[in-house]
Amino acid sequence: MAANYCRGYLRNHMDMENGQARSHPAQSPHRTLVFGVLALLALLQVASTVTILLHLTGYLREVDMSSVQPAEEVHSEPIIADALRDPQIKERWRKRDATPVAHLSVRTPIDFSSTDPTVVTTVHWDELRSTLIKFKYHNGRLLMEEQGLYYVYAKTCFRYAADHVSNRQDVSNAQLIQYIYHEINSQSKFGPVLLSKSGGTLQWSHRNYHMYCVQQGRSVRLRKSDSLFVNVSNSWLLDPEPEGTYFGAFKMSN
What we know:
Elements: H1 2-57, H2 59-83, H3 87-96, E1 101-106, E2 120-122, E3 125-133, E4 135-138, E5 141-144, E6 148-161, E7 174-183, E8 193-202, E9 209-222, E10 227-233, E11 246-253
Antiparallel strand pairs: 1-3, 1-11, 2-10, 4-5, 5-10, 6-9, 6-11, 7-8, 7-10
């Protein structure tokens, strides 16, 4: 009887151990699931941290802007093209970043009524055949739109042809002088400042064709709304060809 009890005890003890051994595999899937969830949460935490850092550095903003830029360009090009068909808008775009430049040719026909050699006349220029970028023109004067250091130049040609009826004047002692003036807007009450003059006295005959040209230039610092103009003596002898008589300026620096 004692032997039977011992065998029963041993059997029960072995069954319990076998039962516990069989129960271990049932717990391993739960542990795997737990570890998987923890690993996924860790990856999400890392991803969110990296995303925040990229936003703080501006990298993602640059990527987003670069990704939409082609679409913006596709839509904006037709709008710009349509706008530039307007002559006024096109002119503003052309002058927006351009260097100030002016070149004027003599205006024809020239008034030859005054032949007094002592009279000095302001030359008038052909605005329709001119180049005016960040300059304006009014009554023989170039008006500054932008201050800076400019180079100013002028060329005037005088000619006399004996076969021209209106030219039958005394040219035996013709004084042909060119003057370039700077009119300061803030000091207009003091009158214009003479920048330079050049020329000479010519002794021409009445039976031949004569021509004489004066060309000069210099740098000058100009302010906005200042003006430049050219005066000449014996303006009735001016050559009306635009290649011979012209006036201009261009900006060299600030």
